[in-house]
Amino acid sequence: MVGIAAVIFIAGVGLGNGTIQFGAVRNQQNKDLPENLDYSSVESMYDVLKANYDGRLDTGKLLDGMKSGLAEASGDAYTVYMNSKDVESFNQQLNGTFSGVGAELGQDGDGNLIVVSPIAGYPAAKAGMRPQDIIAEIDGKSTTGLNIEEAVSKIRGPKGTQVKLRLIRDKKQDLSLTLTREDIKVPSVKHEILPGNIGYLQITHFSDDIAKLATQAAQEFAAKDVKGVVLDLRGDPGGLLDAAVEVSSLWLPKGQTVLQEKQGGVVVSTERANGNNLLQGIPTAVLINEGSASASEITAGALEDNKVATLFGVKSFGKGSVQQIKELAGGGELKVTIARWYRPNGQNIDKKGILPDKEVKMTDDDYKNKLDPQKDAAVAFLRQK
Fold it and tell me: What is the pLDDT of residues 112-125, one digit of tens each?
């Protein structure tokens, strides 16, 4: 599996799927490149296009196309140019409110557009979409050649309008769905106390409010002296790097390593637990699946490697890179991969994912009957502690 480009096509543009970092990082890997590119051949092509094209050209679209082409030439699915419309959608996504069908879009190793995770309660999940479903067509048109942002823009739309999707599941089932778009508000945290005094904390995406909300849940768990905690990261596409560090810190002693960032194999940053370890010492089970990516994988990996949690479910998505947002002269922004992140055990999970300690799969009947053997297994494990 390659590339989520943190997109959430609920939002319509990507978070670099997961770890977005803001700040300055200096990269020495491309220091041998020329200071400026020679654009004479591009200008020559423009002259030929302008003189010969049978149709009306748009200067803005031509410039956007050149910027997009530069980003795509990196060969990295997470390095993407965003115009002003894309930036607006991106900011809506960070706020957790947007209009769409309620699913995250990604890309596999063959370049297919895939569903990373449908969000419970919204059109995609209600229609039965699942992680790893290939999106072959959007409104009758093939998705071949579309990048993630282009596909997202076609799937998004005003509330009440419809979009038709053709899906391929497990390389054998051919499914057609018509979804009605909705306004979507994604709560980043849900929590409750389950029978047997087990705390249940579900994180759907790592937004900027996650530290406050997760801490409130942890305070309640601690006050009620829960016997164990289930941290549900299934279907969580990621989000902000800082949020992953904050959540991991709830279980880890101050100073414990959460992750390292490397450029060209050289460590440029180490993120450590901040000391807000309200849940330290409480037996914990973490749920992961194919839709758990980036920031959720950082958290799962940090808790497993530091031996404070047991992982249940199936292998996670596998996104091990960090993105940064850069404003561009003339408008627009570049979401660019600036580093690779590594677990405390030294592993980078890109294209590999994280394997659970205890594999528990979901069958077709489980989905149809709304059963949850993964959660049940985690709860049963903690009740025996």
Answer: 999 987 877 899 99
Residues 126 and 197 in one domain: no
- Out of 68, 117, 292, 319, the active site residue is 319
Confidence (pLDDT) at 18? 42
* 105 and 212 housed in the same domain: no
Torsion 116-135-153-127 (CA) sign: negative
Known catalytic residue at 319: yes
Helix (H, G, I), strand (E, B) or coil at 77: coil
Domain termination residue (choose one: 132, 159, 185): 185
**Closest to 147 measured CA to CA, from 133, 135, 131, 157:** 135
Final residue belonging to a domain, choices 185, 211, 226: 185
Across residues 312-334, what is the average pLDDT? Answer: 90
280 with 314, same domain?
yes
The residue from 188, 207, 249, 294 that is catalytic is 294
| Same-domain pairing of 161 and 251 | no
The mean pLDDT of 42-54, rounded to a whole number, is 96
Q: Note the pLDDT tens digit of each residue in 196-249.
A: 999 999 998 888 889 999 999 999 999 999 999 999 999 888 888 899 999 999
Q: How many domains does the chain have?
A: 2
Residues 372, 225 share a domain: yes
For residue 231, give the CATH number of its domain.
3.90.226.10
Q: Which domain holds residue 96?
A: 7-17+79-185
Is 176 designated active site? no
Active site residue 54: no
Which residue among 305, 315, 335, 375 is the active-site one? 305
